[in-house]
Write a structure and sequence with these properties.
This protein is of the alpha/beta class and about 250 residues long. The chain has helices at about 30-40, 55-65, 95-105, 140-155, 175-190, 200-210, 220-225, 240-245, and strands at about 10-15, 45-50, 70, 75-80, 85-90, 110-115, 120, 130-140, 160, 165-170, 195-200, 215, 230. The strands form two sheets. An eight-stranded mixed beta sheet has the order 5-4-3-2-1-11-12-13, sandwiched between helices. It has a five-stranded antiparallel beta sheet with strand order 7-6-8-10-9, covered by helices on one side. Strand 2, helix 2 and strand 3 form a beta-alpha-beta unit. Helix 5 (about 175-190) runs parallel beside helix 6 (about 200-210). The protein is globular. The chain starts with 11 loop residues before the first strand and ends with a helix.
Length: about 250
């Protein structure tokens, strides 16, 4: 895609966290931090759009002093500038139960995110005591991962993505980061054309393709790079800062 920087009117930058904003030590580099600060000074909003829950994303938001919205759990929740919950998109508990049984059948690692907590390789006794937002499988063996993926797809009930090549992430059908950003854009009175989205995994593809400018990290999965308008450096090399300086600052 031929993009002219002058024709772009970026008013919002949406950043994935793991593999994108955060380096291999799960830290925000000084370069990324500085670029975000300069962006916000220009009046352009920066939103974290992540597969993480609020519990595991909040500290980063506070340390970056972000003034805007937050999209968590791949669009499962949208949070406002004052920390208020704006939207929740849960997964039916029956579907969570079915996926939990699927993980046991194939003996996979798993995690499940509720509005209260993140459960890893363990589940509460009463699944119906929680409001569920996402289920994730961690599967080292390609063959087993393909089998699980096929069973999930055959159901036709889920939004299926990943945040690494070894996992599968499952949200309610139609719920993804792009949907979350559409809601944020509406609230800010802008269009998706005014959004620059940066990511590295399958759970970033929807926002990368629907944003006015979609950027894949240098360390992104190949399918993500193919979907993007531009490719920046890796998360180890502050690719987020490089993309912001190239297209916005």
């Amino acid at each position: 895609m031929d993009l002219n920087r002058k024709e772009l009117d970026i008013k919002l930058i949406a950043l994935d966290m793991d593999g994108t904003l955060l380096n291999e030590h799960h830290e925000v580099t000084d370069e990324n931090r500085q670029a975000i600060k300069e962006t916000e000074k220009k009046g352009i909003k920066v939103v974290l759009s992540t597969g993480r829950s609020l519990k595991t994303a909040r500290d980063y938001v506070l340390s970056l002093e972000l003034s805007s919205y937050l999209v968590t759990v791949n669009g499962g929740e949208i949070w406002g500038p004052d920390g208020e919950l704006i939207e929740v998109n849960p997964v039916d508990t029956e579907h969570i139960q079915w996926m939990y049984e699927l993980s046991r059948k194939h003996r996979t690692g798993f995690w499940a995110t509720s509005s209260e907590d993140v459960w890893r390789n363990d589940m509460p006794e009463d699944l119906f005591s929680q409001k569920w937002l996402k289920f994730g499988f961690h599967i080292e063996e390609d063959e087993i991962r393909e089998s699980v993926l096929k069973e999930l797809k055959d159901k036709g009930l889920f939004e299926i993505s990943n945040s690494s090549l070894k996992n599968i992430e499952v949200n309610a059908l139609g719920i993804n980061k792009a949907k979350g950003l559409q809601k944020v854009s509406e609230l800010l009175g802008i269009s998706m054309e005014n959004v620059m989205a940066v990511g590295d995994s399958l759970n970033d593809i929807a926002m990368i393709t629907e944003a006015g400018l979609g950027i894949a990290m240098g360390n992104a999965q190949e399918i993500v790079k193919e979907a993007a308008d531009d490719i920046t450096a890796s998360n180890r090399e502050s690719g987020v800062a490089q993309s912001i300086r190239k297209w916005v600052l």
